[in-house]
Design brief:
Elements: H1 2-33, E1 41-46, E2 53-58, H2 61-71, E3 80-83, H3 93-98, E4 103-108, E5 133-140, E6 150-157, E7 161-168, H4 172-224
Parallel strand pairs: 1-4
Antiparallel strand pairs: 1-2, 3-4, 5-6, 6-7
Keywords: Apoptosis, Transferase
GO molecular function, one term: transferase activity
Pfam families: CIDE-N
Length: 225
C-alpha cells in the first residue's frame, strides 16, 4: 500500500504546481495580446464645404470619427474622413497613426466629394512668369557714418537665374578727397588748354600784324616811286 499512496501524492503535487503556472501563462498572454492604447493627439476637422471647423483630441481613427459626428452634428453614420489638403482617404488605423499632430481632416457624407480650397494650388501648375528680367536695387550701409552707402543691383532672368553686383561707395571724407582730385585734374587740363589756346592766338595775331606791316610798307614804296 506504500508505493500507490506515494504516487497519488506526487500526482496531486504536480497538479497543484501546474495550475498556478497555467494561470500565469494565460494572464501573460492576455497582457501581450491586449491592444496598445495610443495617447490622444490634437486634430482638426471640417465639413465638406469648410463652413464648420472644429479642433478635437483623439487617439484612434474610430475615436476621431465618433467625435467628428458629434462636433459637426452629422446624423449620417456613413462618413469618410479624408485629408483636407489633397482629399486622401484615411480608412485604416495604421495610416492614421502615421499622420502628425494638427492634421486637418474633412468629413464627407454619402454623395459628397472633396473639392480643393481657395488657397490650394495644383502641384503641376507651372510657375507664373511676369517678365523676362527683373531688376532689384538694394541700398545699404556698411558703416552708420556713411552718407551715401552701398548699392546692390540684382537681376533675375526667367525667375531662375540671378546675377548681382555690389557698388560700394566710400565715406564722406574719401568722397570729398576723390572729388577734389578730379577737380584739380580738371583744372590742370583746363589751364593747359588755356595756355595752348593763348599761345596759338598770340601767334595768329603776330602773323596778322606782320602781314599788315608788310602790306603798308609795300604801299608806301609804290607811292614814293
Amino acid at each position: 500500500m506504500g508505493p500507490p499512496a506515494r504516487n497519488v501524492k506526487d500526482v496531486l503535487l504536480l497538479c497543484s504546481v501546474s495550475r498556478p503556472l497555467t494561470f500565469m501563462g494565460s494572464q501573460t498572454k492576455k497582457v501581450l495580446l491586449a491592444p496598445l492604447k495610443h495617447p490622444a493627439r490634437p486634430f482638426r476637422v471640417s465639413s465638406h464645404d469648410r463652413s464648420s471647423r472644429r479642433g478635437l483630441m483623439a487617439g484612434s481613427l474610430g475615436e476621431l470619427l465618433s467625435k467628428t459626428l458629434d462636433a459637426l452634428m452629422i446624423t449620417s453614420r456613413l462618413v469618410t474622413l479624408v485629408l483636407e489638403e489633397d482629399g486622401t482617404v484615411v480608412d485604416t488605423e495604421e495610416f492614421f497613426q502615421t499622420l502628425g499632430d494638427n492634421t486637418h481632416f474633412m468629413a464627407l457624407e454619402k454623395g459628397q466629394k472633396w473639392t480643393p480650397g481657395g488657397n490650394c494650388v495644383p502641384a503641376r501648375q507651372p510657375p507664373r512668369r511676369s517678365g523676362i528680367v527683373r531688376v532689384t536695387l538694394d541700398l545699404y550701409k556698411l558703416n552708420p557714418r556713411d552718407v551715401i552707402g552701398c548699392l546692390n543691383v540684382k537681376a533675375t532672368m526667367y525667375g531662375m537665374y540671378s546675377v548681382s553686383y555690389d557698388i560700394r561707395c566710400m565715406g564722406l571724407k574719401a568722397l570729398l578727397r576723390s572729388l577734389l582730385r578730379v577737380l584739380s585734374h580738371a583744372a590742370q587740363v583746363t589751364g593747359q588748354f588755356l595756355v595752348y589756346a593763348g599761345t596759338y592766338m598770340l601767334q595768329v595775331l603776330a602773323n596778322t600784324e606782320e602781314q599788315v606791316v608788310a602790306g603798308s610798307r609795300c604801299r608806301q614804296g609804290v607811292t614814293s616811286g
